[in-house]
Design a protein that fits this description.
The chain is an alpha/beta fold and 307 residues long. It folds into two domains: 5-86, Arc Repressor Mutant, subunit A (Orthogonal Bundle), CATH 1.10.10.10; 99-307, D-Maltodextrin-Binding Protein, domain 2 (3-Layer(aba) Sandwich). The protein is built from eleven helices and eleven strands. The protein has helices at 10-22, 25-31, 36-50, 66-86, 107-124, 142-145, 189-194, 209-215, 230-239, 257-265, 293-305; strands at 55-58, 61-64, 100-105, 129-133, 150-153, 163-177, 196-200, 222-227, 244-248, 267-271, 279-285.
């Protein structure tokens, strides 16, 4: 067994690996880009340190001693492990990745993201587990503290050092039950405002961007209920005459998973007759993960899932 690392420097282990692998001072020197004389001095030092000649002459060649044969694989493994330890960590094979990633997202974002992301996990990284948390940690130090790996959603509260990237843009459509009065004729701002609405707000707010747009037409809507997330709001709208907002993709894009959920609930989607700002979905992560190959794969997967 090699002597303890405290008694030998890494350069000697590298030289030992080269000498035992090449079984030639000249070739070992060429491999390490040094002179034969310097490599010969290093061999002498190794012989004294290990108490063994290591390589002995046999005619025109040099052959390893039994002690050298014992050390060859161990020296090679030490060099390989040192190289892996000190190499950049950006590259990773997702096929052999074994990790659990924790994502924080609202239910609407999770509904959009989860089916596609888990499809990518199954194909590319079957050893990965994805855990979704609700937004109870939003605005806190969860990314900084390492309690979550990635936040996906509307980012307006991140710490200054947090890295962010926009990954998707959604628009809002109105979801109503089959036979709703808003489905008869062309929706107008006045008809839209005349309907009763269910609002979605984690903080219980009664107003939002749609109320600002209605105010431009001197209109106000009546909010009959406020729910903390979109899925229960859609379920309520499917069972009542309330109107709810459903995030969907561009008009010419395939239906989003959330639009498919709305259809399964029996909701029909109507274009909102008002100019509403787009909903920008971003992802945020702490700089500690910037060079982490596994986390880089996760960010790529989220990016592709929401593309």
């Amino acid at each position: 067994m090699l002597v303890e690392a405290s008694a030998i420097d890494a350069n000697l282990v590298i030289a030992l690996d080269a000498l035992l692998g090449e079984q030639s001072v000249t070739r070992a020197a060429a491999r390490l880009q040094t002179s034969p004389a310097a490599m010969s001095r290093t061999l002498g030092r190794l012989r004294r340190l290990l108490g063994d000649p290591l390589l002995v002459r046999a005619g025109q060649a040099m052959v390893p001693t039994p002690r050298a044969e014992e050390l060859r694989d161990e020296a090679a493994e030490l060099v390989r492990r040192c190289g892996a330890l000190l190499s950049p960590g950006g590259d990773v094979d997702p096929g052999v990745l074994r990790r659990t990633f924790t994502l924080q997202a609202a239910d609407v974002v999770a509904a959009l993201l989860a089916p596609r992301l888990l499809g990518l996990v199954a194909r590319e990284a079957p050893g990965v587990t994805v855990r979704f948390l609700a937004e109870e940690l939003e605005g806190g130090p969860a990314l900084r503290d390492g309690r979550i790996d990635l936040e996906v959603g509307a980012l307006d509260h991140v710490d200054p050092e947090t890295r962010t990237e926009e990954v998707a843009t959604l628009r809002m459509a109105a979801g109503v039950r089959a036979g709703h009065a808003l489905l008869r004729g062309t929706p107008t701002p006045a008809r839209f405002a005349a309907a009763d609405h269910v609002a979605v707000s984690r903080r219980g707010r009664l107003t939002g961007p749609i109320d600002t747009a209605l105010a431009e037409h001197d209109l106000r809507r009546r909010v009959a209920a406020v729910l903390p997330s979109h899925l229960p709001a859609m379920t309520l709208a499917a069972a009542t005459d309330l109107v709810c907002l459903v995030p969907v993709g561009p008009p010419d894009a395939p239906p989003t998973p959330l639009a498919e959920v709305a259809a399964r609930l029996g909701l029909e989607l109507v274009e909102v007759p008002l100019p509403l700002p787009p909903v920008v979905i971003g992802m945020a992560w702490h700089p500690r993960h910037a060079a982490d190959g596994g986390h880089a794969w996760l960010r790529s997967a989220v990016r592709r899932a929401l593309a």
